[in-house]
Automatic annotation (TrEMBL):
This protein's name: Uncharacterized protein
Top-level taxon: Eukaryota
InterPro entries in alphabetical order: AB_hydrolase_fold (IPR029058)
Organism annotation: Phytophthora infestans
Amino acid sequence: MADITLKRKWKWPSREAASIFFENWKSFSSWDRESLACWMQGAIVPDETDADAVVLACHPTVEASIYCGGRLWLSEEEQAKTKCPTTFHSGSTTKMYRQEIFEDIASCHPEIFKTHAPMVGRSHLMVLEDPEGCAKAIVADLETLGCFNAAAKL
């Protein structure tokens, strides 16, 4: 992932040029269009050295550094310290999430952890690709919690 990220274009002559780039770039074709528009509002910023140009707010070298470190790994003891229900969601196309690792964690502590089948055709950016589907999955998780099943008390 780091090598792909480092090759990413990061500067455009105008905001319009950047918007056209992202709206037509294959890597962003799976994104919900409203999510993409909102992302571009914060992700594309004026270039400090060129009044007309824009750049990515997060330079590719900074983003690539995220992919160069080790993955989060919790020991059995650390997993057991988790006290609240925790659910794992993923996308079927992601290279950043290994379903079997989280299934192992959930099998060791089923009272705490639960895994869900990956969202088909979604990546690690599933919230940006399918905000409605992710919201429904989160609501379904919340509905399994006892505090959301009881009548509200004032």
